[in-house]
Write a structure and sequence with these properties.
Blueprint (H helix, E strand, L loop, with lengths): L12 H9 L47 E3 L5 E3 L24 H20 L49 H6 L2 H4 L2 H13 L3 H6 L3 H13 L3 H9 L2 H10 L3 H13 L4 E9 L7 H15 L4 H12 L6 H9 L15 H24 L8 E6 L2 H9 L7 H13 L4 E3 L2 E5 L6 H11 L28 H18 L2 H61 L1
Antiparallel strand pairs: 1-2, 3-4, 3-5, 3-6
Length: 555
């Protein structure tokens, strides 16, 4: 880590903020109170700005890749090894060659701007500002190591136990929080996802529990790097439908997402795969009900005909005969419950049951409120190269997301050609630190976990070790990430989004302080009232004592 003079005004949080704004006067703004100690979480100071020349703060958290064994193409267990980048993968500078001529001083100035904006957000964002009523879900914590959306080409991978399998979550809160982003900003949703990740029992959550500031700073970079409308659509709308509508009118949403997709062919990114019809619409509620019925049939050992139809579609690609498929389904062996270590994974059965329960809950919620299924069923993933991941997903025999492959086959059998998964890049990754937090945050916000009715099974953020780029030299890695940051500053609205979020966060903190002040005044008034009552009662006691003494004298 670079060593800097603590007295340097441009290296302190306040100095960096003044440097970015051009204001050299000391700025005094209220700070939010730290997260509640009752939540059992620490609160370390220090902001995580974009700083590619410094070691990763979040990288000290145990990643799934560093702890999990995966299966190679021969079915043997081996330690995960990072993907070796080809020259075409080495950075977005090939898309934006003009940025290569930027001087080091220009880059440093750009990094100062990002750092200063992030630091300002940090100064006004450590508080516990979730609205009343958003209680953290309680439940048994399952501490486990998990596998996510692997970059390998294996057809089926054995997953360790998914995160949060034994915990109940209130996923509906994210749609409610989305409606308040315009007034409250991102901090409430950042806090909600942080708490859910900790309650899930994941190893990342264990590490992030003691560093809310690091989590918050990473999420600020992620959300301010995204198209702001897309955040609302993945949380409480339909991004596919919005994209198609924007595409038809050459709107800003479509232009931004198309730009991100171009970026993602050479740079790392987060993508989303919503299930939609040809017009971008979500599953109808009647169709969702039919899916629930047929998923339950697949679990039923007596429903061999339906299981045979699904498994036959999947296994014919592997050259298996109909007799082999029939024999397995009659023995209650299902293709999508088969892993490299088990012919009949009980864990996958549990995941499917939990997924069905989540779909039933969403169906009931939509019918009670007379609303559409929004957000749709969707999946969030990370890719070092989006084009490679897109091809892998669309080739159902190679996709490692077994639940989305299974659901696609169910839809194809029930309504041939009606529903399919899209592929939209929603967030560029411009620093190695933010890859895992980005995937985790957006998986929670979009209700993409299987226990939310989404298609993500493994722990989000568990397969982002390729961002470390071990095959590259230190100088090449630094150059790569500098180019990524240059691209973000010149090609996205990151700075404007940071400025907007800073204003919203200031207002949110001021409202919180006003509420706290009013509560203190109310409590003080209550104490004064109680004190006055005590004084009155003491006076009455004194008067009664005087009367009693007078009566005793008369006697």
């Amino acid at each position: 880590m670079d060593q800097h003079d603590d007295n340097d005004p441009f290296r302190t949080p306040q100095g960096m903020a003044r440097h970015a704004s051009g204001n050299t006067d000391e700025e005094s703004l209220p700070r939010a109170s730290p997260p509640s100690p009752s939540a059992g979480r620490g609160n370390r100071s220090g902001a995580l700005a974009i700083r590619s020349a410094q070691p990763s703060r979040m990288s000290r958290y145990p990643t799934q890749d560093s702890m999990t064994q995966t299966d190679d193409s021969d079915g043997n267990h081996s330690r995960w090894s990072p993907s070796q980048l080809t020259p075409s993968q080495r950075g977005p500078r090939r898309l934006h060659a003009r940025n290569r001529d930027s001087s080091d001083s220009d880059r440093e100035n750009r990094e100062y701007k990002i750092s200063a904006s992030t630091q300002l957000l940090a100064e006004h964002g450590s508080g516990d500002i979730l609205p009343a009523g958003y209680l953290r879900p309680r439940g048994r914590r399952e501490v486990a190591v998990h596998d996510s959306d692997s970059e390998s080409q294996n057809e089926i991978l054995e997953e360790p136990e998914p995160s949060g399998l034994g915990v109940q979550f209130d996923h509906s809160k994210y749609a409610v929080l989305a409606r308040d982003i315009e007034s409250d900003g991102f901090l409430p949703i950042i806090q909600a996802a942080w708490r859910d990740e900790i309650d899930s029992g994941s190893s990342f959550g264990e590490g992030a529990a003691d560093d809310f500031n690091g989590w918050r700073d990473s999420c600020d970079v992620v959300l301010c790097s995204m198209d702001q409308d897309s955040i609302l659509h993945i949380m409480a709308g339909n991004l596919t439908r919005a994209y198609l509508a924007s595409k038809a009118t050459d709107g800003s949403l479509a232009r931004t997402l198309d730009k991100y997709e171009e970026w993602a062919n050479n740079g790392p990114s987060i993508y989303i795969r919503p299930l939609a019809d040809i017009a971008g619409g979500s599953l109808t509620l009647d169709d969702l009900e039919q899916i629930i019925v047929h998923l339950q049939k697949y679990l039923d050992p007596m429903q061999t005909d339906w299981a045979f139809q699904i498994d036959l579609q999947a296994r014919l690609r592997d050259g298996d005969s109909q007799e082999d498929v029939q024999r397995d389904v009659e023995a209650n062996r299902r293709f999508f419950f088969k892993t490299n270590t088990s012919n009949n994974s009980s864990q996958r059965r549990i995941v499917l049951r939990r997924f069905i329960a989540a779909l039933q809950g969403r169906l009931q919620e939509c019918r009670q409120n007379s609303t559409l299924l929004e957000p749709p069923l969707q999946y969030v993933g990370y890719a070092i190269r989006a084009s490679q991941r897109r091809d892998q997903h669309f080739d159902l025999g190679k996709s490692t997301c077994w639940l989305s492959t299974f659901l696609q086959l169910v839809c194809d059998k029930l309504w041939p050609g009606k529903y399919s998964f899209g592929f939209l890049v929603i967030c560029p990754i411009v620093e190695e630190d933010i890859g895992a937090p980005a995937e985790i945050l957006l998986t929670w916000l979009s209700r993409s976990y299987f226990h939310a009715g989404g298609l993500s099974v493994g722990q989000a953020g568990g397969s982002t070790t390729s961002l470390l780029m071990h095959k590259l030299s230190q100088a090449a890695r630094l150059e790569f990430w500098k180019d990524c940051q240059d691209w973000m500053l010149t090609e996205t609205d990151h700075q404007a989004s940071m400025k907007l979020e800073l204003g919203r966060r200031r207002e949110l903190v001021q409202r919180q302080l006003a509420i706290e002040e009013a509560q203190v005044e109310s409590e003080f008034a209550q104490v004064e009232s109680e004190f006055a009552q005590v004084k009155f009662e003491l006076a009455q006691i004194a008067k009664n004592a005087e009367r009693l003494a007078a009566l005793e004298q008369l006697e």
